């Protein structure tokens, strides 16, 4: 009885022809391209079982690496499920970080070098306590906080800390140095200089070498290069190396694996270049695309059969991912039965979207696994608010309570606190630069020196103020008094518009390089939460309730059929029903993705396409794409990805334009005419009347073009394409 027949009888698993080829290929390099839902984890475990049971390889001679601790645990559990009755051998599944730490520890001990890890959880009290004089607590965040303040002369915000840590992780994982550091975009002033100071600090501050998590990789790589003895020993130990989720590996991770696999190169790399979505933390899909260049004798197999999704979802997803040029050619298919067509719901407003999702979740069956997916965690808070008010429990996969500690949230609450008691100089001091009363530091010092039961505004008005400031302080006093009686949503609007908070934020964005899109998203979210609440106190209480709700939702994993998660964290998971929300241009793809594309930098847009594809392929039988026309009072446009899906799935247009042809019908077989599938933001085109221009926006029925001669104009896309008005400008 052959191996596959025995495995089918013992485990119930029946491998298809490509999966069997992958299992049998043990000698030499193999790139196994695995489409979503194609059974890669099963295949990888069967391959390990084949090495153990058929080739009699010792388990300690097999190195099985995956991307995350969770993936390693899942692989280990699946292996036990298949083989615990067949063999007592146990292969160790690990992350590359855990292996790297082992190498670094050995190399540094050999050199007699003490080291200390400086990364890990830090609680809020420790963070608030901060420094003791000049003493810097030996933790990555405290060190970066001190270096940021030394470099820029200001306190670092939570957003800047996140951005700075992402930047550092990226440059380390991409193995960048020197002038390359300054080319990496970062919304943090002097990020490259701070990084260089950080690296010096870790080597010079104490006798111990200070290491963060990313140093595990860079030091491991350097140790393997510098110490032939250590490298040779690990090369001799591991006869077979298997890596899962390799599309998520960074440059330095790929380099470590390449070193370990030599000279036999008995390497199995399991990956899907179409699901590479972690470029922002250093992953590099080009390493996969160059696999056959790195290993000229490599075998490449493609597992294209999807066992997860309905034929409708598979066919549209397969066509959608072909938007990308920088990829391996694959044709995903399925033998699963037909189900519901992909649904596209275009609603009037963001609020309508939240109501629709809530209503749909309510109607789902008790045993249906449902997921709501979104690009950014900012989408989760208003959704959690809506679901909570409707009495719907949920499990939130990405617990991100940082929103509730954000300085903008604290600012808005301070504005509200001052409406209750405008004698509070301490509160005014926190927000005096963020509204249009032009209150100076010296005026704050004056107020502090005059303990009084009077209003801070009255005290200021008793001094000799410039005429412009007197008018504004008088107006501010009046507005703060009026806000106390307002519903919170209206009060926030007064803070933003009439007190000038939005303008103050915009100035900070321009001065300090903050991410303005993110900051205004936080403000918009606060307005949405405030909607329908009766008092300012009720708003503050609701924020506390929501924070508690978000933090405790992690305990609902086993008892709850509804999951809220980002596209990134949904990778590798599957659900009966999937709702992808906030599908508008500026969110997915993001404004940054679109700006890069206009500059002919295609990488970010291709990653956004892959991210959307990952979201689509999480669904088994039911997939809905949700978009809308208004976010508050702002007009927004349907994501160009939704428009693309609409064309692929041949959806009828909701508002089909009726046009009278004033000219003979064009020859639409003319290859110089722009076709539906060729509309891309950033593409140069030629209009019959207005000449040469560049497509700046595309979504729904609208296409916007910036012309060389007449500037920015919007058109109905259907009229332009069906009448042959636009030509490709090659």
Automatic annotation (TrEMBL):
Per UniProt, what is one GO molecular function of this protein?
helicase activity
**Ranges of residues in domain UvrD-like helicase ATP-binding:** 13-310
- What is this enzyme's catalytic activity, as reactions? ATP + H2O = ADP + phosphate + H(+); Couples ATP hydrolysis with the unwinding of duplex DNA by translocating in the 3'-5' direction
Q: What is its EC number?
A: 5.6.2.4
* Keyword line: ATP-binding, DNA-binding, Helicase, Hydrolase, Isomerase, Nucleotide-binding
**InterPro entries registered for this protein in UniProt:** DExx_box_DNA_helicase_dom_sf, DNA_helicase_UvrD-like_C, DNA_helicase_UvrD/REP, P-loop_NTPase, UvrD-like_ATP-bd
Q: Which SUPFAM superfamilies match?
A: P-loop containing nucleoside triphosphate hydrolases (SSF52540)
Q: Which domain of life is it from?
A: Bacteria
Give the range the annotation lists for the signal sequence: none
**Record: residues binding ATP:** 34-41
The record ties this protein, via Gene3D superfamilies, to: 1.10.10.160, P-loop containing nucleotide triphosphate hydrolases (3.40.50.300), PCRA, domain 4 (1.10.486.10)
Task: Give residue ranges for domain UvrD-like helicase C-terminal.
Answer: 311-572
Show the PANTHER family listed in the entry.
ATP-DEPENDENT DNA HELICASE SRS2 (PTHR11070:SF2), UVRD / RECB / PCRA DNA HELICASE FAMILY MEMBER (PTHR11070)
Q: Which family does the UniProt entry place this protein in?
A: Belongs to the helicase family. UvrD subfamily.
Q: What is this protein called?
A: DNA 3'-5' helicase
**Source species:** Pontibacillus salipaludis
- Which taxonomic lineage does the organism of this UniProt entry have? Bacteria, Bacillati, Bacillota, Bacilli, Bacillales
């Amino acid at each position: 009885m052959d191996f596959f027949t025995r495995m089918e009888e013992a485990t119930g698993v029946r491998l298809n022809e490509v999966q069997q080829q992958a299992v049998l290929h043990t000698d030499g390099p193999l790139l196994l391209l695995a489409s979503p839902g194609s059974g890669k984890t099963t295949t990888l475990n069967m391959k390990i079982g084949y090495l153990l049971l058929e080739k009699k390889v010792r388990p300690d001679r097999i190195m099985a690496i995956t991307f995350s601790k969770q993936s390693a645990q899942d692989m280990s559990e699946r292996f036990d499920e298949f083989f615990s009755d067949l063999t007592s051998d146990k292969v160790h599944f690990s992350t590359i970080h855990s292996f790297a730490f082992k190498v670094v520890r050995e190399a540094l001990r050999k050199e007699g070098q003490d080291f200390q890890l400086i990364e890990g959880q830090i609680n809020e009290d420790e963070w608030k306590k901060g420094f003791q004089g000049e003493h810097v607590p030996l933790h990555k965040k405290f060190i970066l906080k001190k270096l940021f303040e030394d470099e820029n002369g200001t306190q670092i915000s939570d957003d800047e800390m996140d951005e700075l840590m992402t930047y550092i992780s990226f440059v380390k994982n991409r193995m960048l140095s020197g002038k390359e550091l300054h080319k990496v975009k970062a919304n943090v002033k002097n990020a490259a200089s701070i990084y260089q100071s950080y690296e010096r600090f870790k080597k010079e501050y104490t006798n111990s070498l200070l290491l963060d998590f990313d140093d595990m990789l860079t030091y491991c790589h350097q140790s393997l290069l510098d110490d032939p003895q250590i490298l040779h020993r690990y090369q001799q130990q591991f006869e077979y190396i298997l890596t899962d989720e390799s599309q998520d590996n960074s440059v330095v991770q790929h380099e470590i694996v390449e070193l370990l696999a030599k000279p036999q190169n008995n390497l199995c790399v399991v990956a899907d270049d179409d699901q590479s979505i972690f470029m922002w933390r250093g992953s590099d899909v080009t390493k996969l695309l160059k696999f056959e260049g790195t290993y000229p004798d490599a075998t490449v197999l493609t597992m294209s059969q999807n066992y997860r999704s309905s034929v409708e979802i598979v066919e549209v997803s397969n066509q959608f991912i072909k938007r990308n040029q920088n990829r391996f050619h694959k044709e995903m298919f399925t033998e699963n039965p037909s189900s519901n067509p992909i649904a596209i719901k275009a609603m009037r407003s963001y609020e309508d979207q939240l109501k629709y999702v809530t209503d749909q979740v309510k109607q789902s069956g008790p045993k249906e696994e449902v997921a709501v997916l979104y690009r950014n965690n900012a989408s989760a808070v208003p959704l959690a608010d809506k679901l909570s008010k409707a009495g719907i429990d949920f499990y939130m996969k990405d617990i991100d309570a940082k929103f509730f500690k954000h300085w903008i949230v604290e600012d808005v609450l301070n504005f509200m606190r001052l409406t209750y008691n405008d004698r509070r100089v301490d509160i005014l001091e926190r927000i005096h630069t963020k509204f249009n009363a032009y209150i100076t530091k010296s005026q704050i010092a004056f107020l502090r020196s005059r303990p009084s039961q009077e209003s801070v505004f009255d005290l200021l008005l008793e001094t000799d103020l410039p005429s412009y400031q007197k008018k504004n302080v008088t107006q501010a006093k009046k507005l703060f008094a009026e806000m106390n009686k307002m519903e919170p949503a209206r009060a926030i609007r007064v803070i933003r518009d009439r007190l000038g908070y939005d303008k103050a934020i915009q100035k900070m964005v321009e001065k300090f390089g903050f991410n303005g899109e993110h900051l205004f998203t936080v403000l918009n979210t606060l307005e949405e939460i405030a909607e329908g609440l009766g008092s300012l106190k009720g708003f503050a209480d609701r924020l506390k309730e929501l924070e508690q709700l978000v933090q405790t939702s992690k305990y609902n994993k086993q008892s709850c059929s509804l999951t809220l998660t980002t596209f990134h964290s949904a990778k590798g998971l599957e659900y009966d029903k999937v709702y992808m929300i906030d599908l508008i241009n500026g969110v997915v793809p993001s404004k940054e993705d679109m700006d890069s594309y206009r500059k002919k930098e295609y990488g970010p847009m291709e990653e956004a396409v892959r991210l959307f594809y990952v979201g689509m392929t999480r669904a088994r039988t039911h997939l809905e794409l949700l978009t809308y026309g208004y976010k508050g009072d702002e007009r927004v446009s349907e994501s160009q990805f939704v428009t693309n899906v609409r064309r692929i799935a041949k959806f009828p247009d909701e508002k089909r334009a009726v046009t009278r042809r004033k000219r003979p019908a064009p020859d639409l077989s003319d290859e110089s005419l722009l076709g539906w599938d060729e509309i891309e933001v950033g593409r140069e085109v030629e209009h019959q009347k207005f000449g040469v221009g560049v497509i700046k926006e595309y979504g729904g029925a609208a296409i916007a073009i910036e012309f060389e001669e007449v500037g920015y104009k919007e058109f109905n896309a259907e009229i332009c394409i069906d009448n042959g008005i636009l030509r490709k400008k090659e």
